[in-house]
């Protein structure tokens, strides 16, 4: 399915990476969240709205049949393509046509917060209590629950993700060839990147290698990974206002560092407009930034261009004011329950979400069915790539799941020694990670006005990094924004929220 087509189907749902997406067929419930779900022994009917990435899987295939059997559910799923999910979600909010369970991508968005405050979703705080009735949900770390709250209350079950997710890889074969040591600081990293650009590490006699680059649109992962080492993510206040991350001195210092990297061609010269990771997988980048999970796949792709490639993680780099490791929210989206859902059904929905967070369901969602989607040889999983290609169930996000700090570190196709090294590196990054101080904070003004107020920010930033403008232009831009009344309102709202969340801190 492509485009903005809305898909509705009664299918089994399994929870781990998100929700389910459907295609074709008919549903067993109205999708309005009005079923009482009183069947004593039969499957519980649940209407569900979720997001779909790419082509839909076969919802009548063995994988989803198995999910339905294990969870004893009958699901009526509205699967919405990612490109139109927010629009459809907002429409459902405004028309009060929410399903029993809905994936809320951003619980701190202005529209969502307004709907929550008007009673669109059930306050789960008293129902979950101490989680005694929900042992699998109880395993989600407290920090993740706190980060996903709105106004201090729980309005949905967070879908756990790794807290320390981003890392930097490096071409070990290039280090060895140039007789360089593994960098441990941002200064050493700069020196190594300079060598990668100037000393022909791939040995082709051409000046065509790049130092540092990201994977993904606009190289967006590059910024946060290093800026935190300069103190950009430390909570900073001016009077009653909380400075936004990019307003801090640490972020300014990071931009100067980024400009130095760009000036020696250690950054891609068109970094701000790059849309794909082809540059990195072409074997021309010495240190790509990505998440831990991508290392093995990236290495396999790079070896197609350069069979001698070796790739390892860079340890968290020590900078002038911290380490290059950021602690994220630990979740992607929450699963909210419609306030229209009958009271006697809400507990069944929570029981379902808890069951879907069990190790058994999580294993099923990750690996599929043994003998169909994978086999085991000497205790190690061997993925049937052809079966996964024919039935790409991971395109349909499924809910909740368990928290596993190594979930973005382990690749089933990678050798054990690679996965063990990845796990150790996750621990190293976690030990020195700086949390994003804005996690879980809500500013109504920011949600409504940020896109317009800060529309020139990326342009000014790019000009500074590429040397088209001096750092003073960035400083002038920041000062101009700090003086704007609406921006001051944003900073004040964030400051008030921060003090409520962390009463013992400034």
Automatic annotation (TrEMBL):
Coiled coil: none annotated. InterPro entries: Bact_solute-bd_prot1. The keyword Signal applies. Keywords: Signal. Residues 1-21 form the signal peptide. The keyword Metal-binding does not apply. SUPFAM superfamilies: Periplasmic binding protein-like II. It comes from the Bacteria. This is ABC transporter substrate-binding protein.
């Amino acid at each position: 399915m492509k485009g903005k087509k809305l898909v509705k189907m009664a299918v089994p749902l399994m929870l781990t990476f998100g929700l389910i997406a459907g295609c074709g067929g008919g549903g067993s419930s109205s999708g309005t969240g009005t079923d009482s779900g009183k069947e004593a022994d039969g499957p519980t009917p649940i209407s569900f709205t979720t997001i779909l990435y790419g082509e839909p899987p076969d919802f009548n295939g063995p994988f989803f049949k198995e999910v339905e059997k294990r969870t004893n559910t009958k699901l009526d799923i509205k699967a919405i393509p990612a490109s139109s999910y927010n629009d459809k979600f907002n429409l459902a909010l405004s028309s009060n046509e929410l399903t029993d369970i809905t994936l809320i991508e951003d619980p701190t968005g202005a529209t969502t917060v307004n709907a929550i405050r008007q009673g669109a979703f059930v306050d789960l705080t008293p129902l979950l209590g101490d989680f005694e009735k929900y042992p699998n949900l109880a395993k989600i770390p407290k920090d993740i629950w706190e980060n996903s709250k709105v106004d201090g209350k729980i309005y949905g079950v967070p879908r756990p993700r790794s807290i320390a997710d981003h890392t930097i890889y490096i071409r070990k074969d290039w280090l060895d060839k140039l007789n360089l040591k593994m960098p441990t600081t941002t200064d050493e990293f700069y020196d190594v990147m300079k060598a990668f650009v100037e000393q022909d590490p791939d040995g082709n006699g051409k000046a065509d290698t790049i130092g540092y680059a990201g994977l993904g649109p606009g190289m967006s992962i590059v910024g946060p990974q290093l800026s935190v080492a300069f103190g950009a993510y430390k909570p900073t206040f001016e009077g009653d206002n909380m400075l936004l991350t990019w307003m801090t001195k640490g972020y300014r210092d990071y931009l100067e560092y980024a400009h130095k990297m760009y000036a020696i061609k250690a950054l891609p010269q068109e970094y701000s407009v790059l849309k794909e990771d082809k540059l990195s997988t072409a074997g021309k980048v010495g240190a790509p930034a990505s998440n831990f999970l991508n290392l093995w796949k990236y290495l396999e792709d790079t070896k197609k261009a350069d069979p001698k490639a070796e790739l390892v993680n860079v340890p968290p780099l020590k900078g002038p004011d911290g380490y290059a490791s950021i602690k994220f929210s630990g979740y992607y989206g929450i699963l909210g329950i419609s306030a229209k859902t009958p009271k006697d059904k809400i507990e069944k929905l929570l029981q379902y979400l808890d069951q879907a967070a069990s190790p058994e369901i999580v294993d099923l969602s990750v690996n599929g069915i043994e003998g169909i989607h994978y086999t085991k040889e000497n205790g190690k999983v061997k993925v049937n790539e052809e079966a996964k290609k024919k039935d790409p169930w991971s395109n349909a996000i499924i809910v909740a799941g368990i928290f596993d700090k190594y979930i973005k570190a382990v690749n089933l196709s990678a050798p054990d020694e690679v996965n063990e090294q990845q796990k150790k590196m996750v621990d190293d990054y976690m030990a020195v990670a700086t949390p994003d101080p804005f996690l879980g904070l809500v500013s109504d003004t920011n949600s409504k006005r940020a896109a317009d107020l800060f529309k020139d920010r990326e342009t000014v930033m790019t000009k500074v990094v590429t040397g088209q403008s001096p750092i003073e232009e960035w400083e002038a831009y920041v000062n101009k924004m700090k003086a704007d009344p609406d921006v001051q309102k944003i900073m004040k709202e964030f400051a008030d929220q921060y003090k409520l969340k962390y009463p013992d801190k400034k």
